[in-house]
Amino acid sequence: MSRVRVTAPFSALVDQEVFAVDERSAQLIVRAPTETVTIDVAGQHLTAPTMVGVAVVDVDGLEADTSYTALLSDAGGRSLGELGFRTRESIGPVLSRFATVSDVHLGAAAFGPAKSLQDTGDEPQTLRCARAALDEAATWGAELLLVKGDLTDTGSEEEWDLAQKLFASSPLPFLFTPGNHDQWHTRELDPAAGAQLLGVPSDPVQHHDLAGVRLVLGDTSKPDKGTGDMARIERALLDAIDVPTPVFIGLHHHIQRAPIPWFWPPGTTSTNANPVVDALAKTNPSLFISSGHTHRNRRHRIGPRGSVTFTEVSATADYPGVWAGYEVSATTIRQTVRRIASPSATSWTEVTRQAIKGVWPRWSQGVLDDRCVDAVVSTS
Questions:
Q1: What is the CATH number of the domain that holds 60?
Q2: Would the pTM of this model clear 0.70, i.e. be above it?
Q3: Bridge-partner residues for 59, per DSSP?
Q4: Distances (CA, A) of 195 to 76, 190, 199, 299, 307
Q5: Residue 214 in contact with residue 243, Cβ under 8 Å?
Q6: For 249-268, what is the mean pLDDT?
């Protein structure tokens, strides 16, 4: 299993970083007090506007498994340094593509422990971020979107109306499973009623087949509770993954590495989830499991002898503000987490970067290998 590599010095990552790399493209983040930045790489001369001092730049048309150096400069032509990176190895012909979002939190008016970070835009900031994420995933070529919980912030009718507005403007077909915020104790609509409003199923376990992969969504949420429960859907999960193809399972709650949580928010305990994962791996060893909930990017190996790839993917609604794209080949399910590049989104997600006195990015962002992950599978 290949690992992605970036050759910029660590000290430069504060202001310049490679956020995502796949076989043919890279996403570069450049922070500078200038209206535009320019990037010279692979014979391309790219200019990108900055929003609140940051530019999110997607560089396409690259060669697989090749080293590149991007030269960065500001609007006046002054050097901002350089970023070195290597594209990922080829996984062979891509059979299908899908995307995920999680922790969209439509209706949230502020962010941070004291809700001190607020947006003054004309349109709700979380709606702007979500719309941009869906547009970018559709342009990238996703065939289906999986919404992994916390679509709303408190389950209010107004927030579900925002969700209906969001998906009505998107060309992407989607499936949805609720999170703990959709089950908030003050909710005005239950998630099942919200799903009906959106015109999608509300079954605890759902599946959809694409070329080379079965996509499964599992509802780990509990009414009025913040924690998850994977054991209650074990039987339905086992039935859904009992197929001859690889399976991607999307959950809202992360799988804790211990019975007792050591960070907030608590997820599904290891004692609850691990026996389920073991049973799933015995039924179908070609598994990739991914969750939201923690608002951070991490990769883990779980299951029998660490045979199952498990990732946590950070939120769409706050820094770094992401969506995840997945490419499926005959040998690999490839995850690439991308920042939402639209300035309409970065104008808010960069504000949330200030949370917890600037510590939030160090917690939420993860490293490149947390975001860009290959799971070796077999379609035979």
A1: 2.60.40.10
A2: yes
A3: 26
A4: 51, 9, 6, 30, 34
A5: yes
A6: 95
The domain tally of the chain equals 2
Query: Residue 321: is it exposed, middle or buried by C-beta count within 10 angstroms (0-12/13-18/19+)?
Result: buried
- Phi, psi angle pair for 297, to nearest 5°: -105, 120
Confidence of residue 380 (pLDDT cuts 50, 70, 90): low
Query: Any bridge partners for residue 43, and if so which?
Result: none
The CATH number of the domain where 263 resides is what?
3.60.21.10
pLDDT at 311: 98
CA distance 322 to 339: 4
Residues 105 and 60 in one domain: no
Which tokens is 53 given?
């001092």
Q: Is 196 in a helix, a strand, or coil?
A: helix
Residue 199 neighbours by CB under 8 Å, 6+ apart: none
Q: Is the pLDDT of residue 328 over 70?
A: yes
Say whether pLDDT at 6 is over 50.
no
- The Cα–Cα gap between 44 and 105 comes to 37
Taking 60 as the threshold, does the pLDDT of residue 173 lie above it? Answer: yes
